[in-house]
Specification:
The complex is a heterodimer.
Chain A: E1 2-11, E2 14-24, E3 29-33, H1 40-47, E4 55-60, E5 63-64, H2 72-78, E6 79-82, H3 94-104, H4 110-123, H5 139-151, E7 157-161, H6 169-184, E8 188-192, H7 196-202, E9 205-210, E10 213-218, H8 220-225, H9 230-240
Parallel strand pairs in A: 3-8, 3-9, 6-7, 7-8
Antiparallel strand pairs in A: 1-2, 1-4, 4-5, 9-10
Chain B: H1 8-12, H2 14-19, H3 29-55, H4 60-74, H5 78-93, H6 99-124, H7 128-136, H8 141-171, H9 183-194, H10 198-228
Helix pairs in contact in B: 3-6, 3-9, 4-6, 5-6, 6-8, 7-8, 8-10, 9-10
The chains are: A alpha/beta, B mainly alpha.
The complex binds adenosine-5'-triphosphate (ATP) and magnesium ion.
Chain lengths: 244, 234
């Protein structure tokens, strides 16, 4: 579904992605973790081309992203993205946040878009919040609306960039629950997160990235039980017991 | 002349101040001032928006050309722009143009140039994440601008826009220089005719400008409050 072949990217002199090779199969949930500044966000942002790659090959849903005939908007419509800061549109209600793209991009009839949006809100547990503006919702609720907004385009792939990092602890669970449902429904997902519980129980693979390179790529049992790379071991020690 | 102010001159000429010779002659006075202001306001809103959008567009040449034009217009006194359009426009078009219209065009050009900066700042003030979120759902660049960035940017621009339009209302008084019989022009005529009441006349005129600007400002405050209603907890 997503294939990175020796992908490189530079920000000026900074080598953010230094030869990434990675395959995500359809229906797979891959968690990406690593220290701050290691290139996690950049990695998943390349998948829907919020960042361009400088070298290598990136294939998403069978399309080579370097091919000249690529319809960027169409690709992005098929790849949902959930941001750390939610990025809901503050001037639109929860419902309007969700229906905007289906109406404008997919040209869905308004009534149908509205019904689908209500169904999605129901699915993320916010059926009663359709008419609220983002500022009237808690962080956890905003993030669930943001997930619904991404799902409204019926994407084949969902990308999450630290979706719970900006949330108060008591709200993390509700967002992870929605993501868990999505994972069990067979969605292909790449999730940047430090929620090791999610990685352990809901992912198929965990990838550790440091300085733009993938150092570890293993099923969660193996990743947590016997990480091979010393930097992964060190990282896991820090994340799992931050006080030591 | 007795000491103290005698506002009888204002009351005696009130309709002249308000509407000029209308309906027996052309519209003038305050009514013409309001006409000049509102038409220029609408046109420069459109013009400013267009210039603002051009100045943030991806094509470097267009962006550069826009900024050159804008800086040229901002670098000269408004009076010069009024003169230019007054003398140049008929020459360019090869036909006479009503003075009031040359003034409207001058005010529109000048105000659009200032609005360009306001619009640009408003657009750039919208957080980057908003654009990215919209792009990530498959919206095209212009759709992102029209449905996500501009609505938020415009809301942030309202106070600066109001300032600009208040200046515009006051700047219509420059039309007097090319003989357009708006409020200031009418006032100088009455003053020339009566000779002895300049203080009363120009106090009155100043008060009228003040009231118009104040009304406009408070109307836009209400608009702002309406725009914000329901969108915050407070
Ligand atoms: N647009 C940019 N221009 C220049 N440098 C950038 C840009 N975006 C990211 N960087 C730099 O690239 C490096 C990798 O950034 P990235 O956001 O991918 O890291 P990350 O692993 O997501 O980190 P974090 O955990 O802090 O989110 C960082 O050093 C960052 O400062
Ligand atoms: Mg990041």
């Amino acid at each position: 579904m997503i294939e990175f072949h020796d992908v490189h990217k530079w920000f000026g002199k900074l080598h953010v992605l230094a030869g990434v090779n990675l395959r995500v199969e359809p229906g797979q949930v891959v968690v990406v973790c690593g220290p701050s500044g290691s290139g996690k966000s950049t990695l998943i942002r390349t998948v829907n081309q919020l960042e361009r790659i400088d070298q290598g090959r990136l294939v998403v849903d069978g399309q080579d992203l370097a091919s000249p005939g690529l319809d960027l908007n169409r690709l992005r419509a098929e790849v949902g993205f959930v941001f750390q800061q939610f990025n809901l549109y503050p001037h639109l209600t929860a419902l309007e946040n969700i229906t905007l793209a289906p109406i404008k991009v997919r040209r869905a009839p308004k009534v149908q878009a509205r019904q689908e949006a209500l169904d999605l809100l129901e699915r993320v547990g916010l059926a009663d919040k359709a008419g609220r503006y983002p500022a009237q919702l808690s962080g956890g609720q905003q993030q669930r609306v943001a997930i619904a907004r991404a799902l409204a385009m019926r994407p084949k792939i969902m990308l999450f960039d630290e979706p719970t990092s900006a949330l108060d602890p008591e709200m993390i669970g509700e967002v992870l629950a929605v993501m868990g449902d999505l994972a069990s429904s067979g969605m292909t997902m790449m999730v940047v997160t430090h929620e090791m519980g999610f990685a352990r129980h809901l992912s198929h693979r965990v990838v550790f990235i440091d300085q733009g390179q993938i150092l570890e790529d293993a099923p969660p049992e193996e990743f947590f039980a016997n990480p091979r790379h010393p930097r992964t071991q060190q990282f896991l020690r820090q994340v799992l017991s931050p006080l030591h | 002349m007795e000491p103290g102010l005698d506002f009888a001159v204002v009351w005696d000429n009130l309709t002249y101040f308000l509407i000029g010779r209308f309906p027996h002659g052309p519209l003038g006075g305050l009514a013409l001032t309001l006409y000049l202001a509102s038409v220029s306001c609408l046109l420069s809103f459109v013009g400013g928006l267009a210039l603002g959008l051009l100045s943030v567009c991806k094509n470097a040449a267009i962006c550069w050309a826009t900024l050159v034009l804008v800086n040229l217009l901002r670098g000269v006194p408004l009076l010069m722009v009024v003169f230019w359009t007054y003398f140049l426009l008929p020459a360019l078009l090869g036909q006479t143009v009503a003075e009031a219209h040359t003034v409207i065009i001058a005010l529109t050009l000048f105000t659009s140039a200032y609005m360009c900066g306001i619009v640009r700042a408003g657009i750039e003030g919208v957080p980057r994440g908003q654009r990215e979120a919209a792009l990530s759902t498959g919206l095209g660049r212009w759709q992102v601008m029209a449905f996500v960035v501009l609505p938020q940017g415009l809301r942030n621009m309202v106070p600066s826009l109001v300032n600009q339009f208040v200046s515009l209302i006051k700047d219509t008084s420059l039309a007097f220089i090319v003989g357009v019989s708006e409020l200031t022009h009418v006032a100088t005529q009455v003053n020339n005719r009566t000779m002895v009441f300049p203080t009363e006349i120009f106090l009155f005129v100043a008060l009228v400008y003040f009231v118009v600007c104040w009304l406009f400002t408070s109307l836009s405050r209400r608009l702002e409050r309406r725009l914000d209603r329901g969108k915050s907890l407070g």
